[in-house]
């Protein structure tokens, strides 16, 4: 078995000619840019670059542009099937985004897939004369920039650095070099970020070993997703949950159940409710099966699935805590004490423990009901938070 220092890492660059309107020019630019990209990575990291092609799929544009997440979904599967550690997809069509009108590149460090569009790299897009060498040079820079983001390389403030946080397409041609420190950071990050061990047998053992080995990558992905950001993308879920909570809060039967059921039973029910809500959202927003078409289980898909599940779990737990705090505050501040004494049919619900149990019970039901409504929220927005680092 090869040691970590002897491990050969492979970067795949896949062209996806979706519309085929000017295939010859697109493929010529991509081939020449990949050649320079290959030389740059050999000099800096010693990795191997392979050129791949993909004929489909027949994607449907939305509002005049294509969704990068559609390409990302394809890339996640193709990366495993082609046996590469990283995959960069080059397409000739414009890519829409959730934050801007369009994007040139979209790196997903969690999946080790980057999507790059050449649509706006050619000066002809901006009404100028065609300049193929300039287009190729911009694409070379974008390939290096996107791959470096997959290695979690930070941005630079220097306009001539490959990792410059560019704003305009014109900036790309001037971004020409890495620093020695950046090269060292990339060499150090490469074995950590290249998740692509595979297994067909002992899948549960493989999953457990992967979770232990890659816990840092999973934790970084969870922090990047941020439960507060995810909640902001779930308006339908929150609305459905609040509607349920308001209704249940003013129902005498809820007060009866909450005051008579044991606290440990409510805690157990809440755990089950949060877990069920997480499972419902995972089925709605995750990217399909973690097995490839050849039934191989890959390390990167285990990391991706674990980060997705835990991000959603923390989000549901946060929502439960927020609802519980609001319900308890409403109970002790605005709910009439006399009504607490007479409304429940079993015992007066005036003790602090009664209020806590009611808050737990109603919050759990609210989260569970909200998860069903949350499936109607935009899967593109949620997946964008879970899987995408930023839009260039």
TrEMBL record:
Keyword set, alphabetical order: Membrane, Transmembrane, Transmembrane helix
InterPro entries, per the entry: MetalloPept_cat_dom_sf
GO molecular function, one term: metallopeptidase activity
Gene3D superfamilies: Collagenase (Catalytic Domain)
Positions of transmembrane segments: 230-251, 263-285, 306-335
Protein name, per record: Uncharacterized protein
């Amino acid at each position: 078995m090869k040691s970590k220092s002897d491990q050969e890492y492979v970067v795949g660059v896949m062209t996806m000619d979706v519309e085929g309107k000017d295939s010859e020019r697109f493929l010529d630019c991509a081939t020449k840019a990949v050649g320079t990209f290959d030389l740059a990575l050999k000099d800096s990291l010693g990795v191997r670059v392979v050129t791949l092609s993909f004929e489909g799929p027949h994607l449907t544009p939305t509002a005049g542009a294509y969704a990068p997440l559609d390409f990302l979904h394809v890339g996640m599967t193709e990366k495993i099937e082609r046996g590469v550690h990283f995959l960069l997809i080059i397409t000739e069509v414009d890519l829409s985004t959730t934050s801007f009108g369009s994007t040139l590149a979209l790196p997903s460090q969690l999946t080790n897939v980057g999507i790059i569009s050449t649509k706006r790299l050619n000066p002809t897009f901006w009404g100028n004369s065609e300049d193929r060498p300039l287009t190729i040079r911009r694409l070379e820079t974008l390939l290096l920039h996107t791959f470096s983001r997959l290695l979690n390389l930070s941005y630079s403030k220097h306009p001539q650095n490959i990792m410059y946080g560019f704003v305009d397409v014109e900036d790309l041609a001037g971004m020409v070099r890495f620093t020695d420190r950046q090269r060292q950071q990339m060499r150090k990050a490469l074995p950590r970020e290249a998740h692509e061990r595979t297994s067909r047998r002992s899948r549960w053992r493989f999953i457990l070993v992967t979770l232990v080995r890659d816990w840092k990558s999973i934790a970084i992905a969870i922090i990047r997703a941020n439960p507060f950001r995810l909640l902001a993308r779930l308006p339908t879920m929150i609305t459905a949950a609040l509607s349920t909570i308001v209704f249940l809060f003013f129902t005498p039967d809820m007060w009866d159940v909450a005051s008579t059921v044991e606290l440990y039973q409510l805690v157990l029910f809440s755990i089950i409710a949060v877990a069920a809500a997480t499972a419902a959202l995972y089925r709605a927003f995750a990217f399909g099966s973690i097995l490839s078409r050849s039934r191989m289980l890959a390390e990167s898909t285990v990391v991706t699935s674990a980060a997705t599940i835990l991000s959603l779990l923390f989000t549901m737990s946060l929502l439960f805590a927020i609802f519980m705090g609001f319900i308890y505050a409403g109970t002790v501040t605005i709910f009439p004490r006399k009504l607490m004494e007479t409304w429940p049919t079993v015992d007066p619900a005036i003790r602090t423990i009664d209020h806590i149990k009611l808050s737990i019970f109603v919050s759990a039901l609210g989260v569970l009901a909200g998860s069903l409504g949350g499936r109607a929220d935009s899967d593109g927005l949620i997946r964008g938070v879970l899987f995408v680092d930023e839009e260039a």
